[in-house]
Fold this protein.
Amino acid sequence: MTTASNTSADPASKVPEAEQPNQFNVQIANGEASSAFAQKRLFQLRPKDKGNNPRGPWKTAFSRLLRDKLAVASFVFLAAIVLSTASATYYADHISQTDPFQSNLDGQIEINGDPAEIMAADSEGLGLGVTPIGPTWTGQYLLGADAQGRDVAARLLYGGQNSLIVAFASTALCLVLAGVIGTVSGFLGGIVDTILSRLLDIIWAFPIYLLAISLSIVLISTGLQIGPFHIPSNSLLLPITIIGVVYVPYVARPIRGQVLTLAKSDFVLASVCLGMPTARILVRDILPNVVTTLIVFAPIMMSLSILTESSLSFLSIGVQPPAASWGTIIQDGQGLLYTRPLVAIAPGLAIIITVLCLNFLGDGVKDAFDPKAKLRVGKG
Amino acid sequence: MSDNILEIRDLTVGFRTEQGPVEILKGVSFDVKAGEIVSVVGESGSGKSMTSLAVMRLITDPNAMISGTIRYKGRNLPGLSAREMRKLRGRQIAMIFQDPMTALTPVHTIGWQIAEQMRVHLGLGAKVARKRSVELLGKMGIPDPERAYDRYPHHLSGGMRQRAMIAMAISCDPAILIADEPTTALDVTVQAQILDLLQDLRREYGSSIILITHDMGVVSTIADRVLVMYSGRIIEHGAKSDLLDKPQHPYTLGLMRSIPPMTGERPRRLPSIPGSPPLPGKRPEGCSFRPRCEFSFSKCSAVPPLYRCNEQFAACFLAEHGSHQWQRNLAEERTAK
């Protein structure tokens, strides 16, 4: 396509070059009388632009990814999920027309012209309890209400927002930390490597959930003080930091191993031989080789993060009320499991679909970016 | 000071092992003159590559013990700071590696890698560096260098990659180019092209080349002077024509004999040197070639010094009093053919 644009964009500048004697020119001049036609042919035969070069590794990887139908479908699904959660505010304001963060125990809505209580009194037994309204499958209370009369559909979208933000940010944090730690400890070796590796070992020694839960319980009560910055206990930054840090060894270890081999590789030796400064070798030779590994890790780490976040929130030590996340909604639905199972099932399904898509995408990314990889991500 | 650009004296490299210190190189001394192609020949494990690594100061193993002097233009390399050494590498002494498949970074285009070189050492801007890289690639005989600049190493064939490597090594016009088996990984036609290229480089830039190889064919094609290494020592050195025609050391003779003859009757079996080189820790007392040598005699239990023998030097007691008998026999054999 670059060929076409180049020749059509500036044909005049190409003319002198065509007049230089070259083998194509000679052949065509012998064969055909129409020189204009011959010249036109010539441009197509011998494009002088870079479009003819083989594509670089990035483009190749992306086009390989695009060929993976499952990965593309998963990506489309994920994009749809992200977009719909992003429209949570609009949904709450215009479609559900309730505040999903405010309990609404004595509200009423109209279904097909008939008024309906959001919290209907039980007709069975002593008639003392109340049951939230079930799914209406129309605008308001699409998926019914939870125990406090809040619109589950709206909360699902808001909760998805938080779940995805936490997962994305903690993955980013984890990859950056792991990338830096792995690269530095693999490349510098010696005492730095020993200290960093032992630190990772300490984190690794704990089962992921045990560590995440313990950290959360402690930090939720006090908030986290890092130097001059204080993270209050209801901030999303808290679960982000905890989940990000907990998974660092699982990424940093393979990175460190890769950097160890890279540091001993011929091209690094060649760079040393050619007098490159160490920092430059690190940034220009080692890092780009490691980045693909980090990319391969990203979707898989994100799906693990979503699961961890949901678990923490389910135990009410993740995202703090009144904010929602898929995990907290499942917890809300726990008590309604027999009467209104959808309250717990809907966020559960959302989690399953997102995690599945991320894993499919992760597989595709792995095949595309690192076909020879022997990487395994340990499940917490 | 003579016109020696590199003077190596008594270079000894040893490693501390669990069995005690093991010497890989023992008292290697040689000079490289400006514009000269010096070829270092020897079997695997004879210390060829270790010599070049020592010159580049790339032996970073904490168990290594290095002694001796390596003078480059009068400066003693082992005495330089890491920073000075880094400035020297690439700018003054550059190195080409054996395997161009692995010696180029896979994530950058080859042009970028060459340009990077010049940007670091010569402080060139991106555009100038690009222009000069393209020029260099062209000089290396890469067709359509402008386009080759934007190719990644895996897009190129082995020969092209080796050319790119050489372009990278000479981009800053180094005074000495160390080529560690630059043609071993390439097929024969490409080998010849690369050797031609090295000769052109010498002619055009006047750089000295230290060519490390085990291929006598390569040696006879381009070397001016030859050093034969065996088990960590230089056992013979001299001008190429002298050394190849009149080898003074039985080991060199053995190497020469093991090359298939171009003319005459085809031997049923090529003569070979029996046995294999001793491991660095298990070298025999005295001459380390003694167990494999067909001429060994009582004197060989001492380490032979380098004896002068016409224009060349050989570390063998047979050469103590000039050319020896088998030497003449060989000459007769050749004239008979």
